[in-house]
Amino acid sequence: MIYDRFQQEAIDHINNGHSVIVSAPTGAGKTAIAEHIITDSIEKNIGVIYTAPIKALSNQKFRDFQAKYGDKIGILTGDVSLNAFAPVLIMTTEIFRNKVLDEPDSLKKYSWIIFDEIHYIDNPERGTVWEESLIFLPKHMNLLGLSATIPNIKEFASWIESIHNKPVKTVIEEKRPVPLHFFFQAGNEVADKIDHFRRLRFAKPNKLYGLINYLRSKEDLPCIYFVFGRRRAEELAEDLANFNFLTGPERTEITNMYQELCERFDLKSDRTAQNLYQLIQNGIAYHHAGMLPTLKEVIERLFTSRLLKVIFTTETFALGINMPSRSVIFDELRKFYGRYVRNLKTRDFYQMAGRAGRRGIDDEGFVYCRINLNRITLDEVRRVIYGKPEEVKSQLNTSYATILNLYEKYQDDLFKIYPLSLHYFQSRKNEQKEALRLIDAKLKLLKECGYIANNSLTQKGIFAKSIYGYELILSELYDQQIMEQLDEFGLGVVAVAAVFEPRKNQRLPSSLSKNTRSIKRTCEEIYEDIKHKEERYRIYPFSKLPYFHMSTAMEAWLRGTTFDKTLRFSDTDEGEVVRYFRMSVQILREIAEAKVTSYLLKDKIKETIRVINRDVVDAEKQLREG
Fold this sequence. Notes:
Blueprint: H1 5-15, E1 19-23, H2 31-43, E2 47-52, H3 55-69, E3 73-76, E4 81-82, E5 88-92, H4 93-102, E6 110-115, H5 127-135, E7 142-147, H6 153-164, E8 168-172, E9 180-186, E10 189-191, H7 208-217, E11 223-226, H8 230-239, H9 248-264, H10 271-281, E12 284-287, H11 293-304, E13 310-313, E14 327-330, E15 334-337, E16 340-343, H12 346-353, E17 365-370, H13 378-386, H14 400-410, H15 422-426, H16 429-448, E18 452-453, E19 456-457, H17 459-464, H18 471-479, H19 482-485, H20 488-499, H21 514-536, H22 551-558, H23 563-566, H24 574-593, H25 599-612, H26 619-625
Parallel strand pairs: 1-7, 1-8, 2-5, 2-6, 3-5, 6-7, 9-17, 11-13, 11-14, 12-13, 14-17
Antiparallel strand pairs: 3-4, 9-10, 15-16, 18-19
Helix pairs in contact: 1-2, 4-5, 9-10, 9-11, 18-21, 20-22, 20-24, 20-25, 24-25
């Protein structure tokens, strides 16, 4: 195989036994470097772990690699465990972090760890997981980090070198194999220069039809149209419903393919699948997290067949999933970041824009930005597109479970761990001081609440160290013997309440069952006590409050109700219902695997998981049938 310059450079470092971090644009061909490690390791009988930031990407990599390497590939994501002792194991980064802290001996046979999308260490909600994984990386493992373009890659590599005392090579590629050409729509005009619009005094509203006709006339289809809202994706697809992008034979082919896939994945009666039917016949679709995972997979397969010409999708479609297109359209250049709407980060823009231009098919990719001059200035547009990508910054926020795992090994010496962090490496003295104070505050709270006594973990502490993210509320339920008393319905309700995050203004069901009301009362009393202690210790963010919005739906599902009927008990999107049910299974597994969990509770959890993890919720079934 003939490699590009940067691919060959990375492979040479790997062959010389070095860890490597690669920074290259989306679509540049970073996966080829990972495949070199996998192929070489299989030949040498060396184990490899491949981590991905989201389960959808883990699943896709499992399918791709399994097609190439057969039974040498396994997957472990919390709700999926297939061929879990394979020499090449794909997992989410959370699973890897948990193994590093809880069961490091299980990693002895793996010599390489591949972190796909390693710049995710910058993610405010989950970046801590990457940082902890890198801090505690076993000494015998080399790493390959694959990243979108980041300007401070050398600083990042220097940090890893400083804590592991071995060289980490950096490979930087700034050019894309398929260059991007930018176009803009403002005032319902299309131009390839931003300054073209400076003369506009009164801007007419942008029309979707006009832009799509422009792409069609230039033969710039297929296109991925990125939007920052699920409903918006559906509405825009419906707005385009009168367009037909397909020839007669193409229409027949895509219709047959869609019907066959819907039958295979048992989607014939799904309302969203039926709504999509007319759009699919015209070469149009939408794709977002509110859809059933199986339906999203059907849409992805149609897209890779090249029969779909326009797909309206949210940004997760850009994250590593290998779905390139001739063109990309941005609905706007502003999105919701945690608490408020702001202009897109340059790095996020190129993560999505990088889906334009299919290597080996297109000479260049086309990126169309729709600009509303009432919401963003032309200078701000220029900054988003032509600015320097943002540096990767630590988002360290050490969890209670991590502190308990570290205390078990190091006792009060755990404070010596913080100076190994990227946060310490990048931060000023006052930020370092505050981070240490926060770790100390969490440790004091854990001691006060009986997770640690006489310099060792108590039963409650041993339980909590396995439950990342929901430690305190679930551990208090365990410690007060409440969990032991719950039946399968109660366990399901507690699990889904722990993981569920309501949308803004989303309301509780009007009638909760007596059982759920009792559990809710108990959880809220426990939570208030936890929050009061966290306020006293100035610990932030606070532990997550359990939300009981999906309790009625969970109880219906546990009674054996069909999925369609279960949806009537919740105003949550069907894809989200599946996701929260799968997350419930994962948290129940973590509880069952805690060393101090009684056999009685393990048996009840096993039965609860069996009933939850069926039909459309069963992620393994989707992979097996896929």
